[in-house]
Amino acid sequence: MTKTVLDLVVNGESRSFAVEGHRSLLDALREEAGLTGTKKGCDVGDCGACTVILDGKPINACMILAVEAQGAQITTIEGLQASPDDLHPLQQAFMEHGASQCGFCTPGILIMAKHLLESNPLPTDEEIRFGLSGNICRCTGYTKIFDAIRTAGKRMAETGMALPATKVEA
Amino acid sequence: MRRFEYHAPNSLEEVSGLLTSLGDGAFILAGGTDLLVEIRERLRTVKHLVDIKKVPGLSGITCSAAQGLRFGAMTTAGELAAHPGLAQLYPNLYDALCALASIQVRNRATVIGNICRASPSADTIPPLVADGASIETWHPDGARIIPLAEFFTGPGRSVLRAGEIATAITVPPPQPGSYRAYIKHGRRKAMELATVGVAVSLDTKDGICTAARIALGAVGPVVLRAPQAEALLVGTRLDPKTVTSAAQQAMLECTPISNVRSSADYRREMVGVLTRRAVQQVLEVAA
């Protein structure tokens, strides 16, 4: 099988690696880029654990071939915080509310919540539900997840992290 | 994932040539949200994927009251749902798009992929059939424009020939006094295939129904029209008694099967319920 050299910008950093045509972006991120924060749950687009932002839009990394992402800008869970000691308001709020049980769904939910809050920092419960409808938590921690997202949204609105300048289309 | 060769041609001629020369194991890759699942779950034997994303002219949306709607093969469900004017002009298609899978999937899945997959439960097909949409195709022997209602020949099958590529969908502009709705019924709201989907598009003049188109999803081998139920509505003021009898007629015109998602009897019952509700929804908007 021939390999294609893939050039990506992952979390603001240019990355380059060779991938076979049948490999998913998820496998490339985890195994070639070493970014194992993005989880492989179902591998068929149902669970949302592998959610990443590709060119401004949240997608399931298992549902795209790595070669299709040639030249793309990707944000994974590793890119959520500005620096190792500087937690994103979502991470802080998830810790405070105990919104993570086994933690497997958490990276995907954080990415999806970031996408939601950046354009809508004060969402209604229905908007959170709609925004997270492609992310499954099997520890049934949704109540705490919702609490954490509301808290993070308020802080993001106060600190200007959810300005129209950062608004992204659904 | 099972291994396959990936091809990314730059023109429709090359896509068609590859599909023809590579034979039965070659498939078009657009969004991939259905195809990649089928490959992983070994439902489809794929030796070659022909990605059409580098082919120019397959993206773009035009949507206006005067021109109607046109979108290309690379238009994703998320992109179309977010397009200005779509929710106002085609609320039936908008509701179908928002009910399709999840935000993440909609950002990859193409509408024409959903159509060409030719699943009887595909959400986008009933509203487009009810609105008289056409599908444009390209083949070295010539381009075609096919009414969407005549496109499907069975579950997973269409009139597309080997090497023929669906390039765009067009929908006529909504006429003044016309109203449309699509209702999806499933066990849950997201990440769900329709148990039954009903689209109703009605034209009215001075409170009288002048034309009716009912399209029923997931209750037959293809998305079905219900011509006798439609005929019952035409010429009436859409009073509750007429609507109920048309809904009962639609139940007689569908041909559901039992499967993992529902029994045939339940599907038939829901065709009645949803047809009535869809007409009611249309009347509420019209009022």
Automatic annotation (TrEMBL), chain A:
Q: Does the keyword Iron apply?
A: yes
Q: Does the keyword Metal-binding apply?
A: yes
Q: Which UniProt keywords apply?
A: 2Fe-2S, Iron, Iron-sulfur, Metal-binding, Oxidoreductase
Entries under CDD domains matching the protein: fer2 (cd00207)
Mention any Pfam family matching this sequence: Fer2_2
Q: Which SUPFAM superfamilies does the UniProt entry name for this protein? A: 2Fe-2S ferredoxin-like, CO dehydrogenase ISP C-domain like
Domain spans labelled 2Fe-2S ferredoxin-type: 4-80
Highest taxon of the lineage: Bacteria
- Protein known as: (2Fe-2S)-binding protein
From TrEMBL, chain B:
Among InterPro entries, the record links this protein to:
CO_DH_flav_C, CO_DH_flav_C_dom_sf, Diverse_Substr_Oxidored, FAD-bd_PCMH, FAD-bd_PCMH-like_sf, FAD-bd_PCMH_sub1, FAD-bd_PCMH_sub2, Mopterin_DH_FAD-bd
Record flagged with keyword Cell division: no
Question: Which key words tag this protein in UniProt?
Answer: FAD, Flavoprotein, Oxidoreductase
One Pfam family it belongs to: CO_deh_flav_C
Stretches assigned to the FAD-binding PCMH-type domain? 1-176
PROSITE patterns (alphabetical): FAD_PCMH
Say if the entry is tagged with keyword Flavoprotein: yes
At the top level, the lineage of the source is Bacteria
Annotated coiled-coil segments of the chain: none
Q: What is this protein called?
A: Xanthine dehydrogenase family protein subunit M
Q: Which organism is it from?
A: Pseudogemmobacter lacusdianii
